[in-house]
Design brief:
The complex is a heterodimer of chains A (422) and B (272). Chain A is α/β, with parallel strands linked by helices. Chain A is built from 17 helices and ten strands. Chain A is 57% helix and 13% strand. In chain A, strands 7-6-5-8-9-10 form a six-stranded parallel beta sheet. In chain A, strands 2-3-1-4 form a four-stranded antiparallel beta sheet, with helices on both faces. Chain B is mostly helical and 272 residues long. In chain B, helix 2 packs across helix 3 and helix 3 crosses helix 5. Chain B is flat. In chain B, 40% of the residues are buried. Classes of the chains: A alpha/beta (422), B mainly alpha (272).
């Protein structure tokens, strides 16, 4: 691994500095061309968005990326020194993973950055500036970003909507212990939200759905009651939280229902969570005392501001990234022993072939079956002999002594001179 | 009255006052950790001051308006700690701490009556019972009034659907409601018994004419409104805006009744 990265982002540099370093898309090939001309640089790419400008290189010797900034942008490094960050090796891997997974973004979890990284990669790849090590780094970064997205709720709002709904319910009712949740409509989202409410303490579940069977199914799953859809309004007063998610084109609950509901409930508050689009609860219901209505947009708006929730998810994402960096680093190291393993196998195969050729003459005429048997036997001997050295090489790849072991193997089998000869 | 411990208590209550003022600009979390022990200690010293005063003056009955203020402030703090223990809610402190601070400051630095003056009242024990019961009733009213305001604030937060509402540190609506209702429930018997004790005293001293005094009439009006408030909560489950309006009306009458001392001929303290 010989990765190097230099850059500025929204945290490190003010807009005036970022502006001066920004590279427009049509100038990107030229910049990449200049980058790979730098001494030592084998591969390179440039990422330039409104929030960051980063120069990434894979090099066989320490490249002077500051010099690249100076020569290409005509900016003296002293001028921007306080604003730039530089990473090497493992830190580059981590940074690239974090950027792709939108953990380094101004709005953590925003989805655009992945597309921008992909685009920058595609341009550099098209120019042949990205082919081996960077290729692996970037394709892994995309996989990591996808993993972060699917395993955490950092970018999605569906999970956070459910948890925001549950937290709002707690703002109204204090504890949800002993509270009744009425599910109007029995879809996936309703189920998810109901699970959150139950996790927060809600005890009783009532389900009503246009198809009664579906309601009955879900009620059974939650250990609750199913109610025929026609009896929705007469039974609603028993619920503290009403979660609507039906496909009804007109609101199911209007102001007059709200007024009736309130008097029947003797002014105890009701919380409507309306995740249906179009809405199942008329918005003017929210104006009634003691009735709180949150629709999908309201929940989403709260979820978007939900710093704590995002922070929690971001922490989970960082853990994933850390594990992925480890995995990538050990993979890169095990890739380093691959040439040794290959030449070891080649070496043994050459010996085997030579010995078979020599022996065949002495054996005289043999049947194809006998020839196959000899072939299988010699192959078997070599495989068995090589098994332990190869697995040792592979498994020790991540260890610090990997280079020593590799060296010993090369010396024992005289692989270096063979390679030189070959 | 000996004021040293009362002034120590006042200094500690000042932390509570600062907390209440600072909360307006946010950043309550850290302050809570300092404020709660400070006002707790303040209340303890306040208790010491009350005991010392009673021992030195050989009577439990408050002889002046300032002593009464001091007692009310103390009862308010005790009430606050009851609520804190039950609900872990510090929000009522936002209103209570400044009131307690002002009452204590007035008691600690106000002009004291000359020590030779003795209470006019006949039976000091009865007076004390009357005053203490009424003070608890007043405190309860104040807390239900504060809860009413907090309820409206939190309801508005939640109805506005803004993220600010989501992150507000006010207690849950149901908790605020419970504080208000329980305060009323607990305060009512105290208020009733306090008024009865007062009536017995007045009757014994002055006969029926006692009841045609503005202070007494206002007190009775407070009690009637209190009853109405309690009944509306109990029967129709009134809460939110209507309950807040009604409880502020009751509270306003109670404040008037408290202030009516200067108008009253029969129910007066010797000094300010």
């Amino acid at each position: 691994m010989n990765f190097h990265l230099i850059g500025v982002n929204h945290n490190s540099a003010p807009l005036e500095v970022r502006e001066r370093l920004a590279v427009s898309e049509d100038r990107l090939p030229e910049a990449i061309g200049a980058l790979v001309q730098q001494p030592g640089v084998e591969e390179g790419m440039v990422l330039s968005t409104c929030n960051r400008v980063e120069v990434l290189a894979s090099a066989n010797q320490q490249p002077d990326l500051r010099d690249f900034l100076r020569s290409y942008f005509g900016i003296s490094p002293d001028e921007i020194r306080p604003h730039i960050y530089e990473f090497q090796e493992r830190a580059v891997v981590r940074h690239v993973f974090r950027v792709a997974a939108s953990l380094d973004s101004m709005v953590v979890g925003e989805p655009q950055i992945l597309g921008q990284v992909k685009e920058a990669y595609a341009i550099a790849r098209g120019l042949g500036a990205v082919h081996s090590a960077l290729e692996q780094l970037l394709s892994r970064a995309f996989a990591v970003a996808k993993r972060v997205r699917s395993e955490t709720a950092i970018g999605s709002s569906s999970v956070s909507i459910a948890s925001v709904a549950a937290q709002l319910a707690e703002k109204i009712f204090g504890s949800l212990d002993g509270k009744t949740v009425y599910l109007v409509g029995a879809g996936k989202m309703a189920e998810l939200a109901a699970r959150h409410l139950i996790a927060h303490g809600a005890t009783r579940i009532i389900v009503s759905n246009r198809t009664f069977e579906r309601a009955a199914q879900m009620a059974e799953a939650f250990g609750g009651n199913a109610i025929p859809f026609e009896r929705l309004h007469e039974t609603a007063e028993g619920a503290d939280i009403i979660l609507t998610s039906t496909g009804a084109p007109e609101p199911l609950f209007r102001k007059e229902h709200g007024e009736k509901l309130r008097s029947r409930r003797r002014n105890r508050p009701v919380f409507f969570i309306d995740i249906a689009v179009p809405r199942n609860v008329a918005p003017e219901m929210n104006k009634l005392d003691g009735i709180f209505v949150y629709d999908v947009d309201d929940l989403q708006a709260v979820a978007a501001s939900n710093g704590v929730e995002r922070k929690k998810e971001a922490e989970r994402a960082e853990k994933i990234i850390e594990a992925e960096v480890d995995r990538f680093a050990s993979r890169m190291k095990s890739l380093a022993v691959v040439p040794t393993i290959l030449s070891l196998q080649e070496y043994c195969e050459a010996i085997r072939q030579a010995e078979i050729d020599r022996t065949r003459g002495r054996l005289g005429k043999i049947s194809p079956e006998q020839e196959a048997a000899i072939d299988a036997m010699t192959r078997g001997i070599i495989n068995k002999l090589l098994h332990t050295p190869i697995t040792t090489l592979k498994s020790s790849a991540a260890d610090p002594e990997a280079a020593t072991i590799e060296d010993i193997v090369r010396k024992l089998f005289n692989l270096n001179s063979r390679k030189a000869k070959g | 009255m000996p004021l040293f411990w009362l002034r120590v208590a006042l200094c500690l209550y000042a932390v509570g006052l600062f907390y209440a003022l600072a909360s307006v600009w946010g950043g309550r979390k850290v302050l809570t950790r300092i404020t709660m022990p400070a006002v707790g200690l303040g209340t303890t010293f306040h208790f010491v001051a009350l005991i010392e005063n009673a021992m030195l003056s050989h009577t439990w009955a408050p002889a002046s308006m300032h002593e009464l203020e001091s007692l009310l402030a103390f009862v308010l703090m005790v009430f606050f700690f009851f609520i804190y223990a039950r609900y872990q809610a510090t929000s009522p402190g936002l209103a209570v701490f400044p009131i307690v601070f002002l009452l204590t400051a007035s008691a600690a630095f106000g002009k004291t009556p000359s020590p030779s003056a003795t209470p006019l009242f006949v039976s000091a024990q009865w007076i004390y019972i009357h005053v203490a019961l009424i003070m608890v009733g007043y405190s309860a009213l104040l807390f239900s009034f504060i809860a009413g305001i907090l309820y409206l604030m939190q309801e508005r937060n939640l109805k506005s659907k803004s993220a600010k509402g989501f992150w507000s540190r006010l207690p849950a609506l149901a908790v605020i409601d419970d504080i208000g209702y329980k305060s009323l429930l607990w305060g009512f018997p105290f208020m009733t018994l306090g008024l009865i004790a007062g009536s017995i005293l007045g009757e014994a001293r002055q006969g029926a004419s006692y009841f045609f005094d503005p202070k007494i009439l206002l007190s009775i009006l407070t009690w009637v409104l209190y009853l109405v408030l309690l009944y509306s909560r109990w029967s129709a489950g009134w809460r939110g805006r209507r309950a807040a309006f009604l409880s502020s009306a009751v509270f306003a009458t109670a404040v008037l009744a408290w202030a009516a001392n200067s108008l009253s001929h029969t129910h007066r303290f010797i000094a300010p």
